[in-house]
Amino acid sequence: MRKALIAVLLVVLFSVPVFAIQPRVAYLGDITSIAWMDGGTLNVALANNSNTRSTITISTDTWDSRWRPVFSERTVTVPGRTIVAVSIKPSEPRRGESINVKISEFRRSVEVPIQAGSIFNAKSFVVPANTRLSFDIDLGFMLGEPRLDRLVVDKFYEGVGSRARGPIEVESVEGGLRYVPSRNSIEYTAPKMVLSMRTPQTNGLEVITFSLSKEYSGYRGGAEEVPGPTILVYGRNFRFTSTAAADPKDDTRVQR
Amino acid sequence: MRKRVFLAALLAVMVLAVGCTNGGYVPTSLAGYVYVQTSGSSAVISPSPTPPAGYQPLEGAYVWLTTQSSIGATTRYDGQFFFPGVNQGAHIINVSSDDLPWETMKTAWTVRTGTNWVHSELFPGLGFYVIIGISNYKYLEDTPGPRQDAQLVQQTLFRDNQLAGIGFTLLDSQATKSNIRNRIERAIDFADSNDFLVVYFSGYSGQDYLSPYDDDGEAWATAITDWELEQWLGDFPGDVTVIIDGSESSTMADGNVFKPFALEEDSKYTVIAAAREGESAVYDPDLGNSVFTYFLVEGLEIQGGYARSDGNGDRDVSANEIYDYVFDAMRKYYENWTDPKSHKPYIKEGAFADAVIFRY
User: Fold this and answer.
1) What is the DSSP string of B39-51?
2) CB < 8 Å to A243, chain B
3) Nearest-by-Cβ selection for A253 from B218, B247, B341
4) CB contacts, 8 Å: B246 with chain A
5) In whole angstroms, what is the distance from residue B244 CA to residue A107 CA?
6) Which structural domains are found in chain B, ordered by start?
7) What is the pLDDT of residues B95-143, one digit of tens each?
């Protein structure tokens, strides 16, 4: 008995803690919501799974240096079977705190985790069903981690709370150190990997995510999971309307 | 011989120097003839000794300058006055007489070197225009648009305005918090209850504040808050119109946070703001200006003999008229506010929102 207890203790002490990766999505009744930062713009997508419209208030508890909320509360009406994406320009939080965002309806409210500053460089977080999706992953971080042996890519993306699943392909891995014979030199280009996948076939709404694992060698070896983006996938029974700015590259107007 | 040549040269230099001094000195003076309409409904100051048709000389009227003390005189039999030794710069000329439609009427005139003959209508009140545009900030990120906005507003709302007025324009580094306050105080020093003040601001703003050039973006003390602006403007004896092209600028007049001091409380203030709470002001490089100011100035443009915003065609534009024009033009520009960068203008109507701020 004592031996078994010691064995359990040893396992607990020396095993590498593996954190359960929580998909960064929030639910409020029939509303499914994700949020992400795009430069200085905060985007909040609200998907209404019901057939009736909902009135949702987006707010924050984060304050700026003048003790104001970093953005003003706003109320959005989300029609039934519709995704509405709202763009917000928050001001700079005081003391560099991270921004939080809450959605509420009547007396219920829930915090929506914000996806920001990852290596995945996701171009869009709300995508149609059955379309190809790709991510340019910046691998520069690997050079700064000498104990990092390998980076393992999930074989499949998974649906959150559903059976949706699809293969992830590594399209290319490029960059890093390279010998150039013509100049007889070793040159460096930023290493990157392109992952692609086809979003699931659905008529309704799916939330998908995937991750990478960093595997370390040595005495304290183990693995660390790098959560990938959480993406809303919508089928033909859903409509996507964006109050987010159109492609900013086409719009030269400047807000102040 | 050498001594004679030296003396001759010295004499020549002295003569030249004296000649130059005399030739360079041009006394600065202000003069004009005051005429009043025979029906008694209006008055003018003219450079001509002959009165315009329907006018007669105003004899015995007292003419004085608000802007330079100890200058004043009574008009002669032909209505003429002459003030030597007037400082160069903008001056307010007042005329008092029982024969005028108002007991005291005035105009503004910029005095330059030489004799300045005034040619202006006389008004019961003057406009004071404080125009501020800040694109380059001391501590905050530069932002395109506001400097050009202020220059355009200065040209249109002040220079092209047929109402007499005094203008103070502050651009970029001139627009410090203390300078803005100082210009408002100068307007207060010269104004009476018949005058009006128009403050135009384009730059950074947020909930309940404007950012002057030296705002650090952190402390309230470096910003101009709504109640602080109200305190500055509170002593202006006439009515005040504040026009703000900035984000969330409607909050300057919403009565929050310090309601007793807010511009919202006093009916002498009319506030036209570019954006409501949560909305950002926009600069459009295709327009060359911030959207709100572009349409504000467009509303003052003459088309078919009338300003576009002059709804009743009386050749006078009030704050209400210009707001109506801007709101409609922006609604079209922002496609019924469906454009994600839309911001809606806002008006806080004071008791004088129908008073004229632009005449053409």
Assistant:
1) TSS-EEEESSSSP
2) 340
3) B341
4) 256
5) 36
6) 29-121 (2.60.40.10), 127-359 (3.40.50.1460)
7) 999 999 888 999 989 999 889 999 998 998 889 999 999 999 999 989 9
